[in-house]
Specification:
heterodimer; A: mainly alpha; Methane Monooxygenase Hydroxylase, Chain G, domain 1; B: 339 residues; mainly alpha; globular
């Protein structure tokens, strides 16, 4: 029996590390967007490297957790839910990495006046991811707090929606080429999508939390 | 020769082990929380311990219901019970070994023209009704603190899973002990008066004939667990109500407490010592205790309506099983043995 406690501890640590990777990636993502807007190219590229590395580690951790949960037939009642949470959360970090890579490859020409709205949008999306990670941690440890954090995810997702809408309105009222407008809109959508992913995971998490109640 | 006469009881014991171990470890094994091998070993050991250490109380009650002074007659009674259980299971009718043996003894009493102790019989009938009710009560009592503990304690889901596995093993051991203590009466109770065994002295230790009989019966239950309960365990669990490992734990503990209450001489003596009414020591149905506990759980969760059909099925078993066993026992005595 002590073996099972040791195994549980090991997987608990892996889940914590996975969630920390996603959480920290959010802050790095936000800083990277800020670097791009201020044309700090080398810092921006460095941060892409960090997020890419975190995404790889998170992938490996997720695979290890999945394998052990199946092989050792742990948490039979919640295994499917936990695996779905981990896989969908992995999409969030993937989405952050992809967005940064789009910035790096396509180098959108963003007029300075849009910087505050891009930062506001990025901040709201990252906050929704951070609330999601806290909610997932509570799903494992403190069921009573999950719903409050899920509400926070929705709140920040809504903030991100509003910021994105405002940004897109401004983009399309500005006197620039249509192809540049569409290009900028694409980046607004890409950042906004991160909070959409976070909300999708949190919606499932709400159901999984009800299932965990005795 | 002794074994041949005991074979009716031993067959009943095998059948009891094969079916009722699933009540204790079914969900845990079905959901792969515990491996069958581990469950079978634990159940076998604790069934034997329960039967040998605390099995005599309920067995004496069975013995008191009808005087059976000959092994051959005891054989017919236990064989009739086994036939009843087999036939009713074949026709998917609700059946309990505990109720079959009572019916078969009454069938013998009628055949032999000897009176049945009506006071004792009414006590036994009362316990059949009390068994699921008490199990429901225990489940209700246990559910709320467990719910509070699980939902409010800041224990990681994986750690909780490990604790649940450990608790299922402990509860399963307790369940097997109670099953042995209570249901061994069905297997060897009718052989008590005509016990063919002699006291056995090994060095300074003397093993009484009664304990040898209890041991032999419990071994039959263990063989049933090891040889056949795997199949039953893998199919049980979700017939009536979906049980999660934690709710299964509540059900198993409630079931075990009920079986123990109706088996423990120590508990009976304790109640008498504080001037409380004594609980009759009577073999009760393990399956009905489980169903009672599940109903208690459903009431506590307020999430499922109690199906009247299930209650009617339990109640019908109280009538049909003893009548069928009584008729079969009387018929065998009349036609084959003593005609």
């Amino acid at each position: 029996m002590p073996i099972i406690f040791k195994l549980s501890k090991n997987i608990e640590d892996q889940i914590d590390r996975f969630l920390t990777m996603v959480y920290d990636s959010g802050q790095i993502f936000q800083d990277a967007v800020s670097d791009y807007l201020r044309e700090r190219v080398s810092e921006f590229e460095k941060k892409i490297g960090i997020v890419t590395e975190y995404e790889k580690v998170a992938d490996r951790l997720r695979e290890q957790i999945e394998k052990q949960l199946y092989l050792k037939t742990l948490i039979p009642e919640n295994r499917g839910d936990v695996l779905a949470i981990l896989e969908n959360t992995d999409n969030v970090i993937d989405s952050m990495k992809s967005t940064l890579l789009y910035f790096s490859v396509e180098k959108p020409d963003i007029p300075d006046e849009f910087d505050p709205l891009f930062e506001k949008l990025t901040s709201a999306s990252v906050k929704s991811v951070e609330s999601l990670i806290k909610a997932i941690s509570c799903f494992f440890m403190d069921l009573q707090s999950v719903n409050d954090l899920i509400a926070q995810v929705s709140k920040f997702e809504e903030e991100a929606d509003q910021a994105a809408l405002m940004l897109k309105r401004k983009i399309f009222t500005k006197d620039i080429d249509l192809c540049r407008k569409i290009h900028l809109r694409y980046f607004a959508n890409s950042i906004e999508q991160i909070s959409d992913y976070a909300e999708t995971v949190s919606d499932s998490l709400a159901i999984y939390t009800i299932k965990r109640l005795v | 020769m002794v074994l041949i006469y005991l074979i009716g009881g031993l067959f009943l014991g095998w059948s009891l082990g094969a079916n009722d171990a699933a009540n204790i470890f079914g969900t845990a094994v079905g959901t792969k929380m515990i491996r069958f091998r581990k469950a079978a070993i634990i159940a076998s050991i604790f069934v034997v311990l329960g039967a040998v250490l605390e099995g005599s109380g309920a067995s004496q009650t069975i013995d008191s219901l009808g005087t059976v002074d000959d092994w051959s007659k005891a054989f017919v009674i236990s064989f009739s019970s086994a036939v009843t259980v087999t036939l009713m299971t074949k026709f998917s009718l609700p059946v309990s070994t505990s109720q079959a043996i009572i019916g078969a003894i009454i069938g013998w009493n009628i055949f032999a023209g000897q009176p049945t102790d009506m006071q004792l019989l009414s006590n036994i009938l009362m316990t059949w009704v009390l068994c699921p009710l008490l199990a429901a009560f225990f489940a209700l009592l246990i559910y709320f603190p467990v719910k509070k503990l699980v939902e409010n304690s800041e224990v990681h889901l994986l750690r909780l899973d490990a604790y649940t596995r450990l608790s299922l093993i402990i509860a399963g051991a307790l369940g097997a002990y109670s099953l042995g203590a209570n249901n061994i009466a069905n297997v060897v109770g009718v052989f008590f008066s005509s016990n063919p065994m002699q006291d056995l002295t090994v060095g300074p230790i003397t093993i009484s004939a009664t304990r040898q009989l209890l041991f032999l019966g419990s071994i039959a239950i263990s063989i049933g667990i090891i040889t056949y309960s795997n199949r039953v365990m893998r199919t049980i669990g979700n017939d009536l109500f979906h049980l999660s490992p934690i709710t299964a734990l509540i059900v198993v503990i409630s079931h075990s407490l009920v079986l123990y209450v109706f088996a423990s001489e120590g508990l009976r003596d304790l109640l008498l010592a504080v001037n409380l009414p004594a609980i009759p020591l009577v073999p009760v149905s393990s399956s009905q205790a489980i169903i009672g506990a599940i109903i208690g759980l459903a009431i506590a969760k307020r999430s499922a309506s109690i199906r009247l059909k299930v209650l009617v099925r339990i109640a019908s078993g109280w009538v049909t099983t003893p009548i069928a066993a009584g008729v079969i026992s009387w018929t065998i005595f009349t036609l084959v043995w003593f005609n």
